[in-house]
What we know:
A: Rossmann fold; 4-stranded antiparallel sheet; globular; B: 11 helices
Amino acid sequence: MSTEQAIKVENLNKSFGKGDAFVDVIRDANFTINKGELVALIAPSGAGKTTLLMMLGCVDEPNSGTMWLGDEKVYKNKWLTKETRKIRREKIGFIFQAHYLIPFLNIIDNLTLLPQANKVKDADSKAKARELLNYFDIAEKEKAMPSQLSGGQNQRVAIARALMNNPQIILADEPTAALDMNRSVDVVKMLKKIALEQDVAIVMVTHDDRMLEYCDKIMKIEDKRVIFI
Amino acid sequence: MIHLAKEDIRHTLGKFIVTAMGVGMLLGIVLIMIGVYRGMIADARVILDDLDVDLWVVQENTLGPFAEASRVHEDLKYTLKGYQAIDKSEAITLQSLQIPFGEKKLTVFAIGYDIYGEINPINKKRLIAGRVLQSDHYEIVVSDKTLYKLGDTMQLGRDIYTVVGITHGTVASGGDPLVYISLKDAQILQFTYTNKRIQTDRARGIINKDSHLVNAIIATVKPTYTIDDTAQELRTWLHKAVYTRTQQSDVLTKYVVEKASKQIGLFTVILITVATIIISLIIYTMTLEKMKEISIMKLIGLPNATIIKMIVEETLLLGILAFIFGNVFSHLIYTKFPKNVVLLTPDALTLFFIVVLASIVASFVGVRKVISADPRAAIGG
Lengths: 229, 381
């Protein structure tokens, strides 16, 4: 496992509202996640999992603190770039509860959409997409539409999409929520394998304690603090 | 390269085409409306073009028979011939008639002319069957729109007329079919009263034997003279209103079809506005249906420009496809209209540019929705 940092966070704070409506969500978060690690993020509903995920994904802006993605400092009390969407496009992969593939694009187009926005050559992005489809054992489905694939196949395509931009981190929002136990274990094992083989850090929000044994670290939000257990 | 708009449309092709056909029918009606106006202008010019004369001499202080009642004496044509500048001059009558049409009546516009005269209003190119008038009485040449056939007879006034010729494309400015009768017959129909009326008039001391009135004298000018100068000279000496062909054409378009053109123009503007609103609503709905995908695209980092391009392209394509359907639709049905509908390419091109503009405006609602889409909506189911 690599010791190269994928995410580093120092004194990160997030609150919403003012006065009577003030809600403190994350207080003084300090942690580092290395490449190759699969980290579970657990907390009760409403404790701030999605908020933390959105801050790590450069969607929600923290109130203060410092954040690195890889070696690049992206936040120090304010975003250090105007284009946070570009950071997402180039450094972050997302996996959702459902596959959320674009229904009007076939599988290969779903995969090459993001590289196309990153100005990657068509041939290069297609080669990368085919390599990933091979990796996930669904190479023969590249021309199929998402509606023609099974739920499990679509979820594998969604994971492949998250890897298309060679991300430093993958943020997975309850990727096993819609799956039965066996398939959930398969997906988490797959994520573990990907983290190691693709040298990428994966932060996975989960409510399912049975998945925790497959993770390298367990990050918990408790009383607004981010702790590792 | 992935073309998002193309792929999205391909995914819902049937729905997209049916929608475009619906909007297309609306645009087709816009084209028909414009065509009706063009038809009125074209119809108004049929008589002027077929007569092909330089001057119209009509009752003083009137605009002539196309716009208001005009009566001049028939023998004025001989006075005109006395002028050096005048080449030919003839008397004509123009009047609306009701002819039998099955069990109903059909309004036609009748032109009465001297069948032995130098100017014949029947354009031989438009004569598709039979012949021109050859007898001073009881012969009629009709437009094919009247559905009369050669040899058919009809009663006009107290007399029976026989159809001796059929013309095509001959209509007046109001869209009524043209019929042609001899000047003598026309004068009887227009100026001769019934026996009872003559009796009553005599009892009142009114004696009016003169039926040698006509509605206008038409004339051509010798090539060596200018039409405008000749018209001015006639105005000075004849105490009559004299119009050149251009002026008479203006009378037709300004006074006769102007109101219709304004009405049609207003309808056209309303229809285009409705089409724009419909396209906007369709695009808005299509965008709403894709909000989850748009949120995901924004979350994974796709630039707004990529998504907005998809919306604008879809709107433009919808507009252009609707325009094509509208053209096909209008060309399929325009002959079914009772009035003459003239579909011109420049009008279609103008509508095309308006549709493109309207589509761009219509895409704004979708674009606004894209800009306001929250990437957080992709998280949390």
